[in-house]
Design a protein that fits this description.
Largest sheet: none
Oligomer: single chain
Number of strands: 0
Mean pLDDT: 83
Number of domains: 1
Shape: globular
Structural class: mainly alpha
Length: 93
């Protein structure tokens, strides 16, 4: 893999994280947590190191209004915490 291919693959994996947050309605919620930039960077790193990019992309296309991420999602704990805060009336979506 050359450097350009590497950059394209990294960008695609970063985009998957953004799509997941929007699909679950948590993109705005993420921006309101303490140190959101660092939390987001770590979450994107977990997404980048996941081996399920193809399955994740297909899951995002197939699930119109999911309640939770797929079981293999490396960010499911973060997502569950964000959903808990959102459900408790933490911030407006």
């Amino acid at each position: 893999m050359n450097f350009v291919d590497y950059l394209i693959s990294v960008d695609a994996r970063t985009a998957l994280f953004g799509r997941m947050m929007r699909k679950l309605g948590l993109d705005r919620q993420l921006k309101h947590i303490a140190d959101h930039a660092a939390v987001t960077n770590r979450a994107v790193d977990r997404c980048r190191s996941c081996g399920h990019q193809g399955a994740c992309s297909a899951w995002l296309e197939e699930n119109l209004q999911p309640k939770a991420p797929p079981d293999y999602c490396r960010n499911k704990d973060l997502i569950a915490r964000l959903q808990h805060v959102a459900g408790a009336g933490g911030t407006d979506r």
